[in-house]
From TrEMBL:
<dbReference type="GO" id="GO:0051287">
    <property type="term" value="F:NAD binding"/>
</dbReference>
<feature type="domain" description="Isopropylmalate dehydrogenase-like">
    <location>
        <begin position="3"/>
        <end position="314"/>
    </location>
</feature>
<comment type="similarity">
    <text>Belongs to the isocitrate and isopropylmalate dehydrogenases family.</text>
</comment>
<dbReference type="GO" id="GO:0006099">
    <property type="term" value="P:tricarboxylic acid cycle"/>
</dbReference>
<dbReference type="GO" id="GO:0004449">
    <property type="term" value="F:isocitrate dehydrogenase (NAD+) activity"/>
</dbReference>
<dbReference type="InterPro" id="IPR019818">
    <property type="entry name" value="IsoCit/isopropylmalate_DH_CS"/>
</dbReference>
<dbReference type="Pfam" id="PF00180">
    <property type="entry name" value="Iso_dh"/>
</dbReference>
<dbReference type="GO" id="GO:0003862">
    <property type="term" value="F:3-isopropylmalate dehydrogenase activity"/>
</dbReference>
<keyword id="KW-0560">Oxidoreductase</keyword>
<protein>
    <submittedName>
        <fullName>3-isopropylmalate dehydrogenase</fullName>
        <ecNumber>1.1.1.85</ecNumber>
    </submittedName>
</protein>
<dbReference type="GO" id="GO:0000287">
    <property type="term" value="F:magnesium ion binding"/>
</dbReference>
<dbReference type="InterPro" id="IPR024084">
    <property type="entry name" value="IsoPropMal-DH-like_dom"/>
</dbReference>
<dbReference type="GO" id="GO:0006102">
    <property type="term" value="P:isocitrate metabolic process"/>
</dbReference>
Length: 329
């Protein structure tokens, strides 16, 4: 039995996570589900966005279903997501983007780079240290090569090695690991890569890059699927995995029933793949596509359905599919 920690967070997180949780419970009602309270609202009420007790609960989880976090421009507030990634060593961030004629997996280094958390402010400037280590680069390169081996055996390395020495270092390590793995490679400067992915997505399979570049690239690639409300992500470590929608907390629409729950529901699909249940993951994706084909869409996709209505429709399609299979004898 899996121990699943559920962390809705802030903004639209508490609106989209219930739909995702219902889908996960559909497949695994027997798992243990543990809710936790964290994030900006928690910080405002208690003075602590991520308590030590909550962190220990996260560390004991097998799986984490995560909503979204608001990070205010307050020097006393430290990013909850970055802290969790570091404390649990969730070093690989996976963001799949797929549609008609393309199937891309963006593999992003998740614990260092410009999100190293090493920052300071001086009298006339603020500084952030970009950390690109051999250990961090090598393990994400190996992870990406492993993904490529299971797909089309091709890897694109997103970089800015023409300007940044740290990216030249990252590029060299990725190339070494790809050669060891027998994976063909392309090297692309990140600015032209973002444009080319949008113009010619079918050219790409697995893309590996550093932390902030992966963040920007995957957000831009969301355009290919209809926006940020459609994309899930997985944060993978050696022993644990955290699944969160890409869209963030979107406080401007929080509480209005407008949030698209599909990214959160797709997180369940990624989770099921992670635990080795690919057929169930495919069922989730099919139920999502049927829901969209039925015209049950939130306003970001041009529809009028509420968050709950989309979630109920996906669950209904799953239930119908299960019923069509017949009873287990």
């Amino acid at each position: 039995m899996k121990r699943v920690v559920v962390a809705p967070g802030d903004g639209i997180g508490p609106e989209v996570i219930p739909s995702a949780l219902e889908v996960l419970r559909f497949f695994h009602p027997e798992w243990e589900y543990i809710p936790v309270y964290l994030g900006y609202e928690c910080w405002k009420r208690t003075g602590d966005a991520l308590s030590q007790r909550t962190l220990e609960t996260l560390k004991k989880a097998d799986l984490i279903l995560f909503g979204a976090i608001t990070t205010p421009p307050d020097p006393k507030y430290h990013s909850v997501v970055l802290r969790i990634r570091k404390e649990l060593d969730l070093y690989a961030n996976l963001r799949p983007v797929f549609g008609e004629g393309f199937d891309i997996l963006i593999v992003r280094e998740n614990t260092e780079g410009l999100y190293s958390g090493i920052e300071w402010q001086e009298k006339d400037r603020a500084c952030t240290l970009r950390v690109v280590s051999e250990a961090g680069s090598r393990r994400i390169a190996r992870f990406a090569c492993g993904c490529a081996k299971r797909r089309r055996r091709h890897l694109t390395i997103g970089n800015k090695a023409n300007v940044l020495k740290s990216d030249s270092y990252f590029l060299d390590i990725c190339m070494e690991e790809a050669e060891k793995a027998g994976i063909s490679i392309d090297k692309k400067y990140i600015d032209s890569l973002v444009l080319d992915v949008l113009q010619h997505p079918g050219r790409y399979d697995v893309i590996v890059t550093t932390n902030i570049f992966g963040d920007i690239l995957s957000d831009a690639a969301a355009f290919l699927e209809g926006g940020l409300g459609m994309l899930p992500s997985a944060n993978i470590g050696r022993h644990q995995a955290l699944f969160e929608p890409v869209h963030g907390s979107a406080p401007d629409i929080a509480g209005k029933g407008l949030a698209n729950p599909i990214a959160a529901i797709r997180c369940v699909s990624l989770l099921l793949k992670y635990v080795g249940e690919k057929p169930s993951a495919i069922e989730v994706e099919k139920a999502i596509q049927k829901t969209i084909a039925d015209g049950i869409k939130t306003p970001d996709l041009g529809g009028t359905a509420t968050t709950e209505e989309v979630g109920r429709a996906v669950l209904s399609h799953l239930a119908s599919s299960k019923k069509a299979e017949g009873p287990d004898l």
